[in-house]
Specification:
- This protein has 8 helices and 5 strands.
- The protein has about 210 residues and is α/β, with parallel strands linked by helices.
- Helix 3 runs antiparallel to helix 4.
- It is globular.
Length: about 210
């Protein structure tokens, strides 16, 4: 009998170190002998990667908030159906850089569409799939600014390059989501060295790992 896979999502605003922590966690899981699929949103499948290009480098004047939310939901639907669910069914661990809570914080919160609209799109497009655990990496604003300057050099993508007020709303949105779902969304302090943060991530997923190895 194939044991069920696990689904872990990393969330957070721009420059919080999600991608670094995701790589470190995947390496740790592989060291435990698990099959690990590392993926991202938008993206993860050829169709979703094509939509990623439209979202992060939009043509013309870009997308209005509703169109942006629909594109994210379409990319996620393909990602879930073609990559995530099949991997979980064969017992793999899927670790993604962003999932639906990003849409809830960005388009639903900062974009003004409201949580109900984003959740409804997710229910329709991805049948409401939720991660086993979402890790919300939180970093103080001053550290985020320094990291973004080092990472992007002033050349952010269409969403990352939005103003500070927008990103403050995103951070507040994530914080509110975690407060409303403490069992499903675990805040992880992102300040400190990558290894220090990694140890906090390992502590957060320890119960899931104990059930699987």
């Amino acid at each position: 009998m194939v044991s069920a896979g696990r689904f872990i999502a990393f969330e957070g605003g721009e420059g919080t170190g999600k991608s670094t922590q995701m790589r470190l966690l995947c390496d740790a899981l592989l060291a435990h002998g698990l099959e690990v699929i590392a993926t991202r949103e938008p993206g993860g499948t050829p169709g979703a990667e094509a939509i990623r290009g439209l979202l992060l480098a939009p043509p013309g004047q870009g997308w209005n908030a509703r169109a942006e939310a629909l594109l994210f939901a379409a990319a996620r639907s393909d990602h879930v159906e073609r990559l995530i669910r099949p991997a979980l069914a064969r017992g793999a661990w899927v670790v993604t850089d962003r999932f639906v809570d990003s849409s809830r914080a960005y388009q639903g919160g900062a974009g003004g569409l409201g949580d109900a609209a984003i959740v409804a799109l997710h229910e329709f497009g991805s049948q409401g799939l939720r991660p086993d655990l979402t890790l919300l990496i939180e970093v103080d604003p001053a550290s985020v600014s320094a990291r973004l300057a080092a990472r992007d050099g002033g050349n952010s993508d269409a969403i990352g390059g939005r103003d500070a007020a927008y990103h403050a709303q995103v951070a507040a949105g994530f914080h509110a989501l975690a407060a409303a779902d403490p069992a499903g969304i675990r805040p992880v302090g992102g300040n400190g060295t990558p290894d220090e943060v990694h140890q906090r991530v390992l502590a957060a997923i320890a119960p899931l790992l104990e059930q699987s190895v």
